[in-house]
UniProtKB/TrEMBL annotation, chain A:
<feature type="transmembrane region" description="Helical">
    <location>
        <begin position="12"/>
        <end position="32"/>
    </location>
</feature>
<dbReference type="Pfam" id="PF04143">
    <property type="entry name" value="Sulf_transp"/>
</dbReference>
<dbReference type="InterPro" id="IPR007272">
    <property type="entry name" value="Sulf_transp_TsuA/YedE"/>
</dbReference>
<keyword id="KW-0472">Membrane</keyword>
<feature type="transmembrane region" description="Helical">
    <location>
        <begin position="117"/>
        <end position="139"/>
    </location>
</feature>
<protein>
    <submittedName>
        <fullName>Uncharacterized protein</fullName>
    </submittedName>
</protein>
<feature type="transmembrane region" description="Helical">
    <location>
        <begin position="38"/>
        <end position="66"/>
    </location>
</feature>
<feature type="transmembrane region" description="Helical">
    <location>
        <begin position="160"/>
        <end position="180"/>
    </location>
</feature>
<keyword id="KW-1133">Transmembrane helix</keyword>
UniProtKB/TrEMBL annotation, chain B:
<dbReference type="Pfam" id="PF04143">
    <property type="entry name" value="Sulf_transp"/>
</dbReference>
<protein>
    <submittedName>
        <fullName>Uncharacterized protein</fullName>
    </submittedName>
</protein>
<keyword id="KW-1133">Transmembrane helix</keyword>
<keyword id="KW-0997">Cell inner membrane</keyword>
<keyword id="KW-0812">Transmembrane</keyword>
<keyword id="KW-0813">Transport</keyword>
<feature type="transmembrane region" description="Helical">
    <location>
        <begin position="113"/>
        <end position="131"/>
    </location>
</feature>
<feature type="transmembrane region" description="Helical">
    <location>
        <begin position="143"/>
        <end position="168"/>
    </location>
</feature>
<dbReference type="GO" id="GO:0005886">
    <property type="term" value="C:plasma membrane"/>
</dbReference>
């Protein structure tokens, strides 16, 4: 149905920009482009980041799987591994705690005037990705493929209908958000 | 009051908005929201300028060619969107040192920039190592129920919580 639009390169660049403007607007309004808010989350003093992310995940999950059910969208997942996902994730986490922004919110921080993001964070991330590219042949041979996960998605690995995972996951996330709210966050 | 001029919106409202935005990225662009690959493409474009086009032949550059694509435009849009949001609420202002950092370590721009740069290095390295960031794994992958993304997101926060606690003296 949307094949022509999806294959139209110029239209996609324009759509990317438009969707990015909406994304950046929402991130800034959500407060998560602020260092203080992200560090507050990592110090477990402020749960804005988790509240925002989990609301996005529940909303997105239900909509994407409904649209997939009707053949409107395809999933885009990749197989992870211990060597890639866990080691990379922990390195990212260390950077997250030191920088206090992530690749999306650092761009938003630049837009709101945070000069530490522009002058420190962005060049750091750029060079960090370049360092990975330089190490990639070595890492690909020895580390990234260690301990491959058994499948792409949780329902696929469990061999169940996706809704068997979606409904309890959505209920669990909503319950966690209620609990945080009840605890005064 | 005009909601566009509000300084912050409820994180639930914003989260639901980003969830709906992700429906549109899948439906109209056949792509998930993500940000970190755009940083590598930018690095590659700068490197091509300096060292010539031979770098395009290296393995990782073949996987992610240094060109402007949908995601690159998305990240450019994030800068504009955040500027619009901040400007409409009167909260756009140049700031070298965020308050929480300044209160703990002093309002010294040089120190904050050095720390941000080191954090950025690790983040860029880790994002490509793990194959995604807080948007690509944390939101887009998690909502697709990707096992790798749930594990990555847990590692992002576990690493971040320990590091932040170490920096702010909670450990």
């Amino acid at each position: 149905m949307f094949e022509r639009l999806r294959a139209h390169e110029r239209a996609q660049l324009a759509l990317g920009l438009l969707m990015g403007i909406v994304f950046g607007f929402l991130l800034q309004k959500g407060g998560v482009t602020r260092y203080d808010v992200i560090i507050g989350q990592l110090l477990l003093a402020d749960f804005t980041v988790l509240q925002l992310m989990l609301s996005a995940v529940v909303t997105g999950m239900i909509g994407i799987y409904l649209m997939k059910r009707f053949g409107l969208v395809a999933l885009h997942t990749r197989r992870g591994s211990v060597g890639s996902t866990i080691i990379g994730g922990l390195i990212f986490g260390a950077g997250f705690g030191i920088l206090g922004y992530c690749p999306g919110t650092v761009a938003g921080a630049v837009g709101q005037g945070s000069l530490d993001a522009l002058v420190g964070g962005v060049p750091g991330i750029l060079i960090g990705t370049g360092a990975f590219a330089a190490l990639y042949p070595l890492l690909d041979r020895h580390i990234l493929n260690r301990g491959k996960f058994p499948g792409d998605t949780i329902p696929e690995i469990l061999g169940v209908n996706p809704w068997v995972v979606i409904l309890p996951a959505a209920a669990g996330i909503v319950a966690l958000l209620w609990l945080l709210h009840w605890m005064g966050f | 009051m005009n909601p566009l001029a509000a300084v912050t919106w409820s994180p639930y409202v914003v989260g639901i908005g980003i969830g709906i935005l992700s429906w549109l990225t899948f439906l109209l662009s056949n792509r998930p929201l993500g940000c970190s690959t755009a940083f590598f493409r930018t690095f590659g474009m700068i490197e091509c300028r300096i060292r010539g086009d031979a770098v395009r032949e290296r393995p990782y550059y073949r996987l992610f060619p240094p060109t402007i694509d949908w995601q690159w435009m998305l990240v450019a849009g994030v800068i504009i969107g955040a500027f619009l949001s901040a400007a409409l609420s009167g909260t756009f202002f140049p700031e070298w040192v965020p308050d929480r950092f300044g209160d703990a370590f002093g309002y010294r721009p040089g120190l904050r920039i050095l720390v941000a740069f080191i954090g950025g290095l690790l983040m860029g390295l880790g994002a490509r190592w793990a194959g995604g960031c807080t948007s690509g794994h944390g939101i887009s992958g998690s909502l697709q129920l990707s096992l790798a993304s749930w594990i990555a997101a847990i590692c992002f926060f576990a690493g971040g919580i320990v590091t932040a606690a170490a920096i702010y003296g909670g450990l």
